C-alpha cells in the first residue's frame, strides 16, 4: 500500500508520477491534478490541458494570457493559414 501525498489515503492501487526529477504518489487523478497542475495566473483555474505559457507565466487559455498583457497568443490558427 502507498500513501497519497495529496489526501493521505493509504491505498492499494496508488500510482506514481515522475516529473522534474521527483516521484510523487497519488491515489487518484484528482489528487494528482490538485497537487501538480499549474494554476492560471489570471482566473485561478487548474491548467489540466495544454494551457498557454508566456515567458514564465501559465494561463488556461489565450484570453486569460491577453488579459494579463501577453500578446500574439491565439486559441487557434486562422482558417486557411498554413505552416
Structure description:
With 83 residues, this protein is an alpha+beta fold. It folds into two domains: 1-36, no CATH class; 37-83, no CATH class. Helix content is 17%, strand content 24%. The protein has helices spanning 29-36, 62-67, and strands at 2-3, 10-11, 15-19, 22-26, 52-54, 57-59. It has a two-stranded antiparallel ribbon with strand order 1-2. A two-stranded antiparallel ribbon has the order 3-4. The longest helix has 8 residues, at 29-36. It is elongated and about 50 Å long. The relative contact order is 0.13.
How is the biggest beta sheet arranged?
2 strands, antiparallel
Radius of gyration: 17 Å
Order of helices and strands: EEEEHEEH
Give the proportion of residues in helices. Answer: 10-25%
Low-confidence stretches: none
Overall spatial form: elongated
Output the number of helix runs: 2
Strand order of the biggest β-sheet: 1-2
How many structural domains in the coordinates? 2
Mean pLDDT across all residues, rounded? 93
Question: Proportion of β residues?
Answer: 15-25%
Protein name: Prokaryotic metallothionein
Organism: Nonomuraea harbinensis
Amino acid at each position: 500500500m502507498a500513501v497519497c501525498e495529496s489526501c493521505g489515503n493509504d491505498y492499494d492501487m496508488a500510482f506514481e508520477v515522475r516529473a522534474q526529477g521527483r516521484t510523487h504518489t497519488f491515489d487518484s487523478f484528482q489528487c494528482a491534478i490538485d497537487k501538480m497542475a499549474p494554476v492560471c495566473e489570471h482566473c485561478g483555474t487548474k491548467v489540466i490541458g495544454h494551457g498557454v505559457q508566456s515567458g514564465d507565466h501559465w494561463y488556461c487559455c489565450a484570453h486569460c494570457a491577453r488579459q494579463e498583457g501577453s500578446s500574439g497568443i491565439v486559441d487557434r490558427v486562422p482558417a486557411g493559414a498554413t505552416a
